[in-house]
Amino acid sequence: MTTEHNRIVYPRPDGTWANRPYDAEIPTTIHDTQNHAVAAAKSLIKNQGGGNLTVLGHDGRVILKTSIPPQETIRPASDAVG
User: Fold this and answer.
1) Are 53 and 7 in contact (CB under 8 A)?
2) Where are the beta strands (DSSP E) in the chain?
3) Dihedral sign, CA of 3, 5, 6, 7?
4) pTM
5) Above 90 in pLDDT, residue 73?
6) Per-residue model confidence (pLDDT) at position 1
7) C-alpha span between 37 and 8 (Å, rounded)
8) Is residue 54 within 8 Å of 10, Cβ to Cβ?
């Protein structure tokens, strides 16, 4: 998987949580809670074709590292064979 689909969630000094691509300096989204930031990151990764998510704790250490699969494409009923 390419790095553009990998994201990191980390705490900010003001108590909020940021979600950004690995290779970016500016967060894509900022959230009040870690759970909301992780959910947003997972959704973005899934919609971008899959990738990896790393979550850092307040001490800067990795607390979660996981792979997110791409979103499944659902074919309309008119495309169904049968």
Assistant:
1) yes
2) 7-11, 17-21, 29-31, 51-56, 62-68
3) positive
4) 0.82
5) no
6) 43
7) 10
8) no
